[in-house]
Design a protein that fits this description.
This protein has 266 residues and is α/β, with parallel strands linked by helices. The chain has ten helices and ten strands. A hairpin with a 2-residue loop joins strand 4 (80-85) and strand 5 (88-89). Bound molecules: adenosine-5'-diphosphate (ADP) and magnesium ion.
């Protein structure tokens, strides 16, 4: 604990606030723009994600949803605007530096290793280099094993640890990939259409899973399934033709005439 805060805490007083300090958004996307040969796939987009928030981005195909995630994870370079994660500018960082900073991203198609077991898939995703001393290997092995078991329980695969990934159902593969990200303990987890192709039961369990993992992290999800969105979203951002069309609670967004017209109406 920071000793300088102690007297304040003991007196029950609030620590002095710096009025110039930025608000504590986990992610602040500001006037973000990318153009591909003059076509603005993302056009002056701003949104702000709080710690422990589940934010869902919805919108018609081609709205720019995936491109927003590509920009945040550094796969695509912004033409203009800013992306601040915990106050740190991401638009200048490499993809791997962004992962290091604590941003994890799942793509639309699962990228697991089919010929490895569930355990091994999780094991290879465990962040390396936390301890470099050989003497600690045994302790580290135990730490990794415990963490794998904990994650496997969260992603409903604790009884499948020895199964080869290729024998999992489509939904289980998606959960495994979420687990491979969770084991790196990202503070911002981004998922692109995680329940596409899942059964109704798997969708309900995925909603449960996301609601469980947001302690100490935020989740940014792109999704089309409105029932699923209602089950998870704290706030919804609607994109349309590269711009933010509407934002707010699901209740507010689904009653917004602009959203009904371009997206929910058909
Ligand atoms: P969404 O995920 O909302 O369906 P995308 O972000 O994938 O939409 O795409 C938004 C638009 O940008 C689409 O018109 C798509 O064709 C275009 N686009 C995406 N990535 C590129 C790229 N690398 N080069 C050129 N155009 C792209
Ligand atoms: Mg997409």
């Amino acid at each position: 604990m920071n000793a300088s805060l102690l007297p304040n805490v003991l007196m029950g007083a609030e620590p002095a606030k710096d009025p110039a300090a930025a608000p504590d958004f986990l992610l602040a996307v500001d006037a973000l723009t990318v153009s591909f040969d003059g076509f603005k796939a993302v056009n002056d987009v701003s949104f702000y994600v709080d710690p422990n928030e589940i934010r869902v981005i919805i919108g018609p195909n081609g709205a720019g949803k995936t491109t927003v995630l590509d920009l945040i994870c550094g796969r695509t370079r912004a033409s203009a605007g800013s992306i601040k994660y915990k106050g740190q500018e991401l638009t200048k960082l490499t993809e791997s530096a962004i992962v290091q900073a604590g941003v994890g991203r799942k793509f639309q198609t699962p990228s697991i290793y089919d010929d490895l077991t569930v355990f091994e898939n999780l094991e290879i995703s465990f962040p390396r280099g936390r301890s470099v001393w050989g003497a600690l290997t045994f302790k580290r092995d135990a730490e990794v094993r415990d963490r794998i078991h904990e994650i496997a329980e969260t992603i409903f695969l604790k009884d499948q640890l020895k199964a080869r990934a290729e024998f999992l159902s489509h939904g289980q593969k998606q959960w495994l990939e979420i687990g491979m990200l969770l084991i790196q303990d990202p503070e911002l987890l981004m998922l692109d259409e995680p329940v596409a192709g899942m059964s109704v039961g798997e969708r309900i369990k995925t909603a449960e899973l996301l609601n469980q993992i947001i302690v100490g992290r935020s989740v940014l999800v792109i999704e089309h399934d409105m029932k699923f969105v209602e089950d998870i979203a704290h706030r919804v951002t609607v994109l349309h033709q590269g711009k933010v069309l509407s934002e707010g609670s699901m209740e507010r967004v689904k009653n917004d005439p602009k959203v009904i017209e371009v997206y929910l109406g058909h």
